[in-house]
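Hi support team,

I'm opening this ticket because the web form for multi-chain structure prediction keeps timing out on my end. I have pasted the exact lines I submitted so you can reproduce it. The total is 749 residues across two entries, so I didn't expect it to be a heavy job. Is there a limit I'm missing, or should I split the entries? Thanks in advance, R.K.
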Amino acid sequence: MNTPKDVRSMLIESATRLFSDNVDQKMLEAAKRDGWSERLWQTLEQAELPRVSVPEEAGGAGGTLSDLAAVLRVAGRFTAPAPLAETSMLAGWMLAASGLPVPRGALTAGPAGDDVVSARRNGSRWNVSGTLARLPWARIAKRLVLLAQADGDAAVVSIDPARCEIRPGRNLAHEPRDEVILDNVPAEEAAPAGTGVTRSALKLRGALARSLMMAGALERALELSVGYAQQRVQFGRKIGQFQAIQQELARFGGEVAAAVAAALSAAGAVERGGDVILAVASAKIRTAEAAREGALIAHQVHGAIGVTDEYALHHSTLRLWAWRDEYGNEAEWARALGGITQKRGADQFWPALTAN
Amino acid sequence: MFFENVDFSALELPAPALKLREEVRAFLREEVAAGALTPHLGHTEFDAEFTRKVASRGWIGMTWPKRYGGQERSYLDRFVVTEEMLAVAAPCAAHWVADRQTGPSLLRYGSEHLKQKYLPAIARGECCFALGMSEPNSGSDLASVRTRAERMPGGWRVTGQKVWTSWAHKAHAFFVLCRTAPDTGNRHEGLSQLIIELDAPGVTVRPIRFMNGHHHFNEVFLDNVYVPDDMVVGEIGRGWKQVTSELALERSGPERYMTIFPLLVELIRRLGQAADVRAQETVGRLTARLWTLRRMALAIALTLDPGAGGDSRATADLATEAALVKDMGTFYEREIIDAARLLAAVEPTPEATDTFERYLAETIVCSPVATIRGGTTEVLRTLIARRLLGSLK
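Hello R.K., no limit was hit. The queue was backed up. Here is the completed structure from your submission:
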């Protein structure tokens, strides 16, 4: 399943070109109002990017989870206002793993938290009820792919959002996080949840997706900060010439390198199997920590201009502050990981860390 | 910006390295069971006997060519051996400098004579090296060294003083950075590296005691020490370039974030199964940070590895990444100490019979060292910033 290195590099290169050509300040401002950029989505669809890692037999574009990881990092770097992760890494995975076709169009998936969704058989169809507090992108999605409880078994159901009551909400970065109320809504498609399709697996993949996107967003925040330090003149010198600024940028660089290393490594671990909780928990913890440090260094280096909505930095930092708390914040994942570590015991700590 | 050509998602240790890990673990288990190891944290200990045992397994100079006593194994294999040794705080001081820095430097710059003379002896665990870089007035600013070598028939006469020379009182020889030509403006020129044997006439070693009274640092006085031409490493006048490539090797390894690892293990043992939220959160966070640092160090080891598609000539190109890992690794170690202190709430006691409590006391006393040696935090960050910003005019 390994993708040769040069194929992955080409994928990254073409994704970078696509986002770089299509995402600009005007689009990002419009997306604050509209919730997303439909135009960008069409472009992504044409390039098959929302289908990377979804098996071809399910209607996907094939490729590995690490290929998708590489794309999500780039999407995060350009703060792409579109449900790329939800469509491919979450909904696409849930459908394909449960033997259902993956329709074209923007998809979203839930619930990853405590929300309860139940499905009841009604003849040949399934009726779905429940409330989801903050379903990402619900109001612009073509289908909501939900994990529902059906008589003690888990089922994956595909729902038309037009049949639901949707109360718009948003995260700090103006991305839709909507309340969705389903009252006996007939599912468009339904199947018993496939092997490994569980609430905790969904949350784990959501955390992985956000880690990758945060790694990318951190890279952009660092690029902007470095560029600003190279140009901004105060006290007769470029501010990047001051050691105080240099030391902070260096620290920022370390945080970004750690975030990228953690997020991509976790994707590889999930692709190969093994101790995925160690990998994904570590990635979500480390990228969230990097987001905390990095976003504030970026603003500090920029001074007052960085906090305005005319300057691009906030597209990255608002997302960092939103994404670090989605699918479990660093404290929540740390408790889970710490609990597992304690349970294994001191003598298994090192063997577990070095198992793969 | 960093790790440009590394694909972290594909980064994995190959099967031979995993097999080797089991061998090293078994060896160390036996040593511990036999009571041969009583680890102390803070400064790696010097144990010539242990070093000879490690050498007999072929684990010193393991990446070197066989004709110089090496095993021609990969850097990843070496990475595995190093991290296993660190995981139990094995006393590796008698061979680590030679294994990590002297050996690679000799392979890269040394004459055939020097390679034959030292490498096989190092690999056998019979020759221990120290580093003569810092001087009383040259700490971070290494290019300002004043130790002078004057031309003599067939060699050089060296006079000066080196400080912070770890284990010079037990080592056989040391690498000396000195000035072979006067500073005429470009201070990076005119520096050279020589090997001086520590029992040579004119060499005096005096202890500099650490603040807990322990002796591993020394000052070494060189008073008209005669050094024959064949003890010059590389080219006369090219010492700066040689030394800086050595520093990249010094900074990149697990020894920059694992020197107090056993304290973390003992902390976990002490916490037991206590379902304390703060304890779980702390352990989880420390685990995540270690996991991430290890992935970065692994990436450097892999890039150094010619066998794995890497290129050993890439050493200098990785200097910034190595600096990053060192900088973050040293601060990570401080976090472990604070976590241990705050969660266990015991008063640090160096003589404690409890292992955790003793480790805690040992690491607190040594805690300022990591962010100073091998490049201070400030110097490393300046280096990292230079990569980020380029040269600003």
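A quick check on our side: The longest helix of chain A spans residues 199-231. Let us know if the file doesn't open in your viewer.
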